[in-house]
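B., you asked whether I could sanity-check this one before it goes into the benchmark set. Here's the sequence:
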Amino acid sequence: MNGSSVPKKGYIRAQYVANCAGYYAQRVGEMFRPFGGRRVPMVVMSHQYFLTEPIAELEAWTKEKGHKMPLVRDVDVSYYLRQDKNGLNLGPYERNCKAHWVTPDDPMPEDFSFQLYPDDLERLEFYIEDAMARVPLLGKAGVGRNTNGPIPYAPDGLPMIGPMPGVRNAFEGHSFTFGIAQGGGAGKVLAEWIMHGQTDLDMWAVDPRRYTGYADHDYTLAKALETYGHEYAMHFSRHAWPAGRDKKLSAVDARVRELGAQMGAYNGWERANWFAKPGDDTSEAATQTWDRAGPWSVRIREEVEAVRDGVGVLDLPGFSRFNLSGEGAAEYLLGLIAGGLPKVGRMNLGYFPDDRGRILTEMSIMRHAEDFFTLITAAPAQWHDFDVLNTGLPAGLSLSDHTDEYSTLIVTGPKSRALFEAMGTKADLALPWLSTQAATVAGINCALARVSFAGELGWEIHAALADISKLYDAVLGAGAVPFGMFALNAMRIEKGYRTWKGDLSTDYTLLEAGLDRWVKLDKVQDFPGKAALAAQRREGVGKRFVTMTVEAGEQDAPYMSTVYHDGTVVGETTSGDWGYRVGSSIALGTIRADLAVEGTQLDINIFGRMCRATVHADRPLWDPENERLKA
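And here's what the prediction gave me:
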């Protein structure tokens, strides 16, 4: 680093730097801003706990039993209560919480090494009274002392451990809300990142790149307050906490909301999850359930059936979108992916392994010319996947991010071709599956990609963000039915399509994930993980990706449900949902390889209930021959 931002005591030259500055991490992060860094998305919360004076009964009990009392957590009221010497320690996570150093009239001091905030016991009064009612012994002792100190919070309450966005050889290890408990694992993970450039287990949940440019001060503060106040809350599958929303809006955001869209946030972008009708319960309380049934379930079925029988449209802003060009771009990509590249005017999937053959990411690769590509990937992967492409980028190649400039409409269903024809589309609608072309739709210049994550005949319309509104209205006017992300997820699971950081992660190799046909060990390029995958192909995999139908009852299998065979743990689910076209609950997952045989009977633990599951052949449950997709 140069002298403009280095502390008074001078310079230290190092090959690697890690920001492990605790509640000062945001201030330290500012030192990296001139070198490509970003504002660290964290907030310092005021966390109080108090210690009672010694309690004679507790001291006697401890001597008699030879150990301390168990730690108590009340997850409904939101506090912990534990023994501290011969007294009690009460630590609430109050809803009426407070952040410090977030406004000009409360600046962060230059030094806050051994200081505390003033006591603010009024905030704790309700929690103290509730704890005393539950544990009367607490009320028999006076308050020994109260501690009100700083605790760092990221928007989701998880730490940030991993590569610092935008700065090479810089890492982060901060925002620990449970520092002592998290310390050992955090040190291991950060050491793995620095020493090996990768971690033993997939650590996306704490990767600093999970927050991109939308995570500004207002968002971070709102989410930190919300997360702290719901520290012990349940996180239901279809529930979204309301703070920090509407950071990035599609050009048709107002239009989809008029149509009844219930929104969800994807890397800050608002997308429709499902479309409500008058009378549907759209309250936040209605979503606080694990059950499949809810106000959304009938609507999801209707949306899926509209796509299955006619044509649907999904407004999909926020695809991470990169252009790669320059002489040698094709050769560069071939050295990063395990498979091959599409021909000009075509597209395919590219899988990027690490040197162990594990899945870094998946991107759709569109080829416009011999050395000109557009790569499209998941919304949350924006900064992660840019790093995948940019690290080691040869001189002479150009890599640029166009995520905020373009958007996508998914138009899909057996009547989608007829819809485009009725709109007077200037394009060759007979081009085969996985073809791309420049087109004119409703008088708008755009690109058409013949692909559908829903598994039906369909196209993606890729156009400038400013043109999406006119295109969306034209598609609706031609008869398409709007559908949302919940319906899309149900349909992609019926096809066995994988999602990034759900079914696809560095916990699995490409072969374990069932992606054998995208692994070309005979190509000349020595891509990362080639030797590891060759060895695994020779020796065989220990686990294998499978599709299972489940006798699931009222809930579908969530991410990381445990899979059993004859009472023995044999794997885990990676995603699950109800398949409305096949009429069954479906789970995707990885299991012991010898059990990955059609007809094998397994059990999945779904919220404490063992549900019988059946393994299916390695092909889609819906339209297994892809006849509808390729129609």
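One thing to flag: The chain is about 20% helix and 30% strand. Otherwise nothing jumped out at me.
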